[in-house]
């Protein structure tokens, strides 16, 4: 009925509005710390979300696409530049502060080129926010309280992941997606979000890493790459019995069709998340000489996940070969039986 249609439209619009508000907050924070109003131009990226929302409401009637979520994809495009700018600002602050005053930071300072005039506060990583004298006292109190209690960068990372999960939950389901698949996808998202946040926080906790510009760039690049799996619906490719191909389909193709979701999950894990995380952590240990208990634990964890993924891939391959062998054996038995029958006829 009309109420159901209205609910679908609200489910499509409300999460996108929240995504835009979160982007607005991130851009505001960039303009505050960089002290450059030109960064407000980042809000032009919101136009992509607006266009996508109009197209989805008119063509898809608010429903998401199968296997891909443009709303989450454009949300990432909107906010990731602001997160990068905030992280690089923190890098500038650290390099010019006593936190990176040792020789280990000297090799990276020439890679950092600050494009803005920044007043550094050497006592803290966050620069105090300057407010006009005629600004509201209540606004001053709120902002000063947030500056003293919040780690803005970590907060944006955390809220970004939370909004991606809740947003996917509220957004209308894609065509051909049922609630069971959506619940599996959301549970997968929770695990992915925890791994990504842990990777960013744990690697940057090391002084040898957070004071090295090239390593910070690498962490942000891997973080950005890993975030791209959220717009993908990892469980949508899992077909039901009624969706299996009919007709003269080979057993190999039917088996690939059956295990398409597992193959997709293995590819995502190896290429987008656990693979890059594992390689970077090995680089930190063997090339940078950074070894500690937590880094070793998470490296072993990534290695175990990759091993299990390749083990699962091997099982799928062996299962694909088994029907072929059975088919060949059956064909041979039929041929032998046919030949025996023909010989009996000749003898008679």
Automatic annotation (TrEMBL):
<feature type="transmembrane region" description="Helical">
    <location>
        <begin position="263"/>
        <end position="283"/>
    </location>
</feature>
<feature type="transmembrane region" description="Helical">
    <location>
        <begin position="6"/>
        <end position="27"/>
    </location>
</feature>
<feature type="transmembrane region" description="Helical">
    <location>
        <begin position="71"/>
        <end position="89"/>
    </location>
</feature>
<dbReference type="Pfam" id="PF09772">
    <property type="entry name" value="Tmem26"/>
</dbReference>
<protein>
    <recommendedName>
        <fullName>Transmembrane protein 26</fullName>
    </recommendedName>
</protein>
<keyword id="KW-0812">Transmembrane</keyword>
<keyword id="KW-0472">Membrane</keyword>
<feature type="transmembrane region" description="Helical">
    <location>
        <begin position="295"/>
        <end position="318"/>
    </location>
</feature>
<feature type="transmembrane region" description="Helical">
    <location>
        <begin position="152"/>
        <end position="170"/>
    </location>
</feature>
<dbReference type="InterPro" id="IPR019169">
    <property type="entry name" value="Transmembrane_26"/>
</dbReference>
<keyword id="KW-1133">Transmembrane helix</keyword>
<feature type="transmembrane region" description="Helical">
    <location>
        <begin position="39"/>
        <end position="59"/>
    </location>
</feature>
């Amino acid at each position: 009925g009309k109420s159901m249609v209205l609910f679908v439209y609200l489910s499509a619009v409300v999460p996108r509005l929240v995504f835009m508000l979160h982007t607005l907050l991130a851009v505001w924070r960039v303009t505050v710390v960089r002290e450059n109003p030109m960064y407000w131009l980042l809000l032009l990226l919101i136009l992509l979300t607006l266009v996508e929302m109009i197209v989805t409401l008119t063509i898809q009637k608010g429903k998401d696409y199968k296997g891909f979520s443009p709303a989450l994809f454009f949300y990432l495009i909107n906010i990731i530049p602001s997160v990068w700018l905030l992280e690089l600002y923190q890098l500038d602050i650290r390099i010019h502060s006593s936190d990176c005053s040792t020789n280990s930071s000297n090799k990276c300072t020439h890679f950092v080129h600050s494009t803005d005039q920044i007043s550094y506060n050497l006592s803290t990583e966050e620069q105090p926010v300057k407010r006009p004298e005629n600004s509201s006292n209540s606004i001053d109190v709120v902002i000063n309280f947030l500056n003293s209690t919040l780690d803005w960068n970590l907060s944006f990372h955390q809220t970004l992941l939370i909004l991606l999960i809740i947003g996917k939950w509220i957004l209308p389901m894609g065509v051909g997606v049922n609630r069971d698949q959506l619940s599996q996808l959301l549970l997968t998202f929770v695990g992915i979000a925890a791994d990504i946040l842990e990777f960013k926080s744990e690697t940057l906790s090391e002084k040898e890493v957070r004071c090295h510009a090239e390593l910070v760039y690498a962490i942000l690049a891997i973080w950005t790459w890993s975030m791209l799996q959220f717009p993908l619906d990892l469980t949508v490719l899992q077909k039901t019995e009624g969706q299996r191909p009919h007709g003269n389909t080979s057993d190999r193709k039917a088996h690939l069709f059956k295990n398409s979701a597992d193959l997709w999950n293995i590819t995502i894990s190896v290429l987008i998340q656990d693979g890059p995380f594992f390689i970077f952590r090995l680089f930190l240990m063997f090339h940078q000489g950074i070894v500690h208990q937590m880094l070793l634990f998470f490296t072993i964890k990534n290695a175990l996940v990759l091993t299990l993924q390749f083990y699962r891939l091997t099982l799928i391959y062996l299962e694909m070969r088994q029907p072929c062998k059975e088919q060949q054996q059956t064909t041979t038995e039929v041929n032998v039986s046919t030949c025996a029958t023909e010989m009996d006829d000749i003898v008679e």
